Amino acid sequence: xxxxxxxxxxxxxxxxxxxxxxxxxxxxxxxxxxxxxxxxxxxxxxxxxxxxxxxxxxxxxxxxxxxxxxxxxxxxxxxxxxxxxxxxxxxxxxxxxxxxxxxxxxxxxxxxxxxxxxxxx
Amino acid sequence: xxxxxxxxxxxxxxxxxxxxxxxxxxxxxxxxxxxxxxxxxxxxxxxxxxxxxxxxxxxxxxxxxxxxxxxxxxxxxxxxxxxxxxxxxxxxxxxxxxxxxxxxxxxxxxxxxxxxxxxxxxxxxxxxxxxxxxxxxxxxxxxxxxxxxxxxxxxxxxxxxxxxxxxxxxxxxxxxxxxxxxxxxxxxxxxxxxxxxxxxxxxxxxxxxxxxxxxxxxxxxxxxxxxxxxxxxxxxxxxxxxxxxxxxxxxxxxxxxxxxxxxxxxxxxxxxxxxxxxxxxxxxxxxxxxxxxxxxxxxxxxxxxxxxxxxxxxxxxxxxxxxxxxxxxxxxxxxxxxxxxxxxxxxxxxxxxxxxxxxxxxxxxxxxxxxxxxxxxxxxxxxxxxxxxxxxxxxxxxxxxxxxxxxxxxxxxxxxxxxxxxxxxxxxxxxxxxxxxxxxxxxxxxxxxxxxxxxxxxxxxxxxxxxxxxxxxxxxxxxxxxxxxxxxxxxxxxxxxxxxxxxxxxxxxxxxxxxxxxxxxxxxxxxxxxxxxxxxxxxxxxxxxxxxxxxxxxxxxxxxxxxxxxxxxxxxxxxxxxxxxxxxxxxxxxxxxxxxxxxxxxxxxxxxxxxxxxxxxxxxxxxxxx
Amino acid sequence: xxxxxxxxxxxxxxxxxxxxxxxxxxxxxxxxxxxxxxxxxxxxxxxxxxxxxxxxxxxxxxxxxxxxxxxxxxxxxxxxxxxxxxxxxxxxxxxxxxxxxxxxxxxxxxxxxxxxxxxxxxxxxxxxxxxxxxxxxxxxxxxxxxxxxxxxxxxxxxxxxxxxxxxxxxxxxxxxxxxxxxxxxxxxxxxxxxxxxxxxxxxxxxxxxxxxxxxxxxxxxxxxxxxxxxxxxxxxxxxxxxxxxxxxxxxxxxxxxxxxxxxxxxxxxxxxxxxxxxxxxxxxxxxxxxxxxxxxxxxxxxxxxxxxxxxxxxxxxxxxxxxxxxxxxxxxxxxxxxxxxxxxxxxxxxxxxxxxxxxxxxxxxxxxxxxxxxxxxxxxxxxxxxxxxxxxxxxxxxxxxxxxxxxxxxxxxxxxxxxxxxxxxxxxxxxxxxxxxxxxxxxxxxxxxxxxxxxxxxxxxxxxxxxxxxxx
Lengths: 121, 626, 472
Hints:
The structure holds three protein chains of three kinds. Chain B is mainly alpha-helical.
């Protein structure tokens, strides 16, 4: 049984060895400056286009709210599909359960609506 | 009726406790309401006690009811709490609730105008609850809890006027002295648990029946007796009781004369099956009791403070009861406990009435001719004193007579002579007090003396009636009814003897007459006597120098040891403790810095923790598999 | 399958939704009515759940278990919820018109806890755990204009997600190796394999996060300090008890005794020892009462874990007993802290100075509750610790009991530090600290239960004894 695990051990060793090797090689081959690095070295991107403005910009929170509401209903569909397919077999008990489930989600929708999550402003 | 009250007898201690809790938590701002509630609770407890007594005494020889419930259960140790209702309990219930009710009513007058009335009544209620809890306990463990509680209440009430330095010191002295006794008591209880595996009285009584290892029983019985020695102020742990008179006088009447100090006697009666099977312990009890009785009676002769005379008288009478227990007369001891509770609380309340009338004056030489101004107080006091001296047909006569009889019948002639001597001394010092304070020619402070109001005199009258008639329950006139219920097969109950009755009455009368000759007629000058026997007088006046001896011994041993310990403590222990504390605190300070507020590092610690756990578990598991 | 046996859970779910809906439907002024309704509803459900205590049933082939073990913890969660709602009375005025959602989310968190305590398999357990945790994420960040609260919410979200991932990883490993998520079947299919061991360790780590066991405790002080105090209280008593309920069931049914060749309790014993030591030591140097209580609650989790280590009837009885009395002692302490914070706006030790002169009752209750936490007789904490440590000694973990006792002594130092400030400290403000009716009731319940259960622990310990029979 334990014979299944050497691969795991080797994988574990490689995961440790890989970053160590990569960074070690970089350290080995990099040019070794005599003086302190100039200011350019401390910028975020040493080459390419300079960034404009702050990175911490605000963007609309409505994106999140829409995503959240969408997610809730997406999950609802995931449950509804198998239920719809097997509707005949599952019978009235499952029907009532699904009604309750949808009702709970409807309350959620109502809540989101009332709290203004569906407004775009 | 009985079906309800018997299993619910826990209500009796619970009611005063409830009063205590309500006063302490909510009602303390309204002293009148507090007092009313407290009195109501204890009166209700008294009324509830009546059907219990009726149920217990309804059966020939006395019925026994026991109810218990599991309090704590674990393998090897079951602790129950429960109620034991038998004649002994019933007598104590009636005595405690009735006297406590009267004392609390009386306190309305005595404590009038005191700023601490609410807390006074809350302590009174707590005391009543603890004392009643002690009385109904069905095992030593529960009893010990209440035993300590009454001690605490006594501490609070002695030090009630905590502004007074002497009251504070007296409270501390009482508490510490009691702790000495209680330590032995607790050891005794623990031994019982270890040896017999139970603390239940009935269970112990069964276990004891077949147990004969005296080498074990003697120390256990003596250790158990340490509790009563402290609580009932037996020599040599008696020193706290006279000082306890610093408390309010109703407290002295209730706690330090009638009930709490009698708890020790009650305990000996309750555990009589243990003591009576160890003759050596019985002798020990009898001797300690006898010594206390004579010792305190001689001191009482020389005291001038009205309350201290009564306090030494209480000591002496408690010694009497213990002596009765020790010679095997459990019935006589309990009987005397009951009658003494009535007449001694009467005497204390009478003294309190005098003290109020004389505006806090307690020196008997500064009183005189009070009988004109305070007739009710005077005559009830005289009834109490006559009862205490054992003049027939008052209550004290019957009970004291039985103790002397028992001492004589048990063959301890020495103890009998001692008892008779104490009876003589008792009569002498009581009537010295009466002739000087109530009938003396001194008119000092007369103009301000006055009879007190009804709340104070009515309890006196009721107690005086009890002091007259309470004795009949165990007199030949009622065929020794008391003895049929409160007895123990191991105890003795000798036939009454007319010779003893007559001789003890004559002895008491002799004491009264001698007091009359010296203090009323002044045929013999007491100053001359004092000067002639000044060595004895000083010895007695200074209470045999026991307090000084204890102080000196304490100085040498306790404080000497304390100084040595102090040095050790400062230089060795403190260094060690401070070092450990320093290390502990420092390690906390260092560990604190792991908490740097960075979510990343928190997650890092978590993952590192998991890695370590997985590796540890895997290594451990692999070592198991391989 | 009798749905009526699920009535407690159904009622809690309905109450939660109803409170949300009513909060939406009623105008802002009507919301106090909703709060009352939520409280009364919880009390009614508590009353019902007492009558339903001894019900026993198994739903969906063992996925959901109704038994006394679950019932006991349901009583605990409901009592804790009610106490927290009572003490929150004045505090929630800070939430303005969002107060009904606050109650709604609390009720839903309670539902999550209930699911955790009754789950018979891992997926249900996980759903309950997430329901509880997500509600708490929101509640922690509920003080919208308070930076500490927002920071606490975010930290809790991130670390909670990490711990959920760890738990799920563990569950998936266990599922991979045994082919089932049902506790009883896992026990049957348990074999000694490294992957399965790793899975179990990960699951334990996931629970350890919820009950804040060292080294998974780091989130606790920051979140406890930042969250609104009622939520801190509920986190410390409710969420923690739920974690223990799930841990005990998983440990006793699925893991322990499945394969006797590996001693799982040793692993827990090391964690418990670390938790007790580190929690108490760091608490020594705290200056903020909320943080102090946070570290104390870490240490308390360590004590309770000792009972799980013991895994005998004594220890498990201790776990259930202690979890219940911890609700009262800790809620009492936090309720006093809430009253002081509402009054002074601060929770540093200096805010408690002179409290005995301002409000003697609050100071006395704080002291009694803290003495109970320290395990001083006759408070309930003593009886609880007695059961826990006695269980450990019985199972051969004398060293763990000794560590517990020594560190309990250390804990007295910092608990009494607060008392010292309250009784000896001076405060120029000598006006009494006001408490509302609800929080006064909560305080009294807490202090009375703490004393009564300490003096007469019999009935509760018997109840706990019945509850654990299912596991023995």
